[in-house]
Amino acid sequence: MCIILNRKYKTWIIKGSRFLSQLFFFILFGNITILFGFALGFENLQTANLGIPVPVNQPIAAPYTTTFNLFELIQWEFSHAIFPLLSIGLLLLYGAILGNGYCGWVCPFGFIQELMGWVPVKKKIPSRETNETFGKLKYGLLVISIFVSLWVGYMVLSGEITAANRDISMFGVFVDIFSAPISQSNTLLSLIPTSIIEAPFSGVSGTIWDVLIAFPWFFFRIVLLLIILLISAYISRFWCRYLCPTGALTGLFNKFRIIYLARDPAKCLGKKCHECEDVCPMGVRILDNPWQRIQANDCIMCMKCYNVCDKEALKLRIF
Predict the structure, then answer these.
(1) What is the span of the domain harbouring residue 201?
(2) Which residues lie below 8 Å from residue 7, measured CB to CB, with a gap of 6+?
(3) Which phi and psi angles does 172 have, rounded to 5°?
(4) Cα within 13 Å of Cα(201), Cβ side
(5) Is this prediction's pTM over 0.70?
(6) CATH code assigned at 311
(7) Tens digits of residue pLDDT in 224-256
(8) Based on the structure, what is the number of domains in the chain?
(9) If you average pLDDT over each of 3-7, 82-86, 164-168, 270-274, which comes out highest?
(10) What SS3 state is found at 28?
(11) What is the DSSP string of 15-76?
């Protein structure tokens, strides 16, 4: 089935609906409270996570959150010697519907990166070679995250890691969820708020600075977050392009998702135009994909290519 929007209104409809979708989920996931709750006097608010896993960068340990990262849950289950049967089933379901389209419409940290893209600086467009080379990093992080989680789970089964020595094992802060300490959404939406909330119970006193530096990896994680956000102002979705293991995992389903974009070769001007490739925030080489389906792993279904094509060569399809 093909969905066609009126050319006159499609720009407004797509841009507006995607922004509202991102803002809606950002608020729904509890991030307004996470980031601004202290200023509003919510620091003593007691909440229980609803436990709704989704395939986006929403920290599993974020205070006030209503959901969490499905990939982090899978890692946690593996590292505790639990086979994540239900979690894998959810992953297959999410992936079959939209692949990593959730990155473009739902992900809180993806939304924050797009807001950074509004900063009025000269944008940089990485070359194809740069995209392909550095894009492999997120797959490396994906493989390492799963491998370490399985390794920890094996050591739990063998008795080498127990509840008593888990926190002081050789894996350190990576013992439960390998990707969490290097995830920038975890730093922004979990580490900083949690540090402030737990300060009265941790025996740390003094300024906010004193509170924050008392937590492991603080300097590294804060500096890395600032660097990622700064680069995101110049290079669109820098974290998503090169470093996000969650997006790497869901992107593997793009060849099979039931909602996708297709290209009409009779209308497309091909390399004579390539406006669709120029506006892609992920640097996807759309014209190199089969015309029947844009199946690149990095396609987040942001619809910018669909929006910019005045020939209406791109179509949104279901099944």
Answers:
(1) 20-251
(2) 310, 312
(3) 55, -130
(4) 7
(5) yes
(6) 3.30.70.20
(7) 999 999 999 999 999 999 999 999 999 999 999
(8) 2
(9) 82-86
(10) helix
(11) HHHHHHHHHHHHHHTTHHHHHHTTTTT-TT-------EEESSS--TT-TT-SEEEHHHHHHH
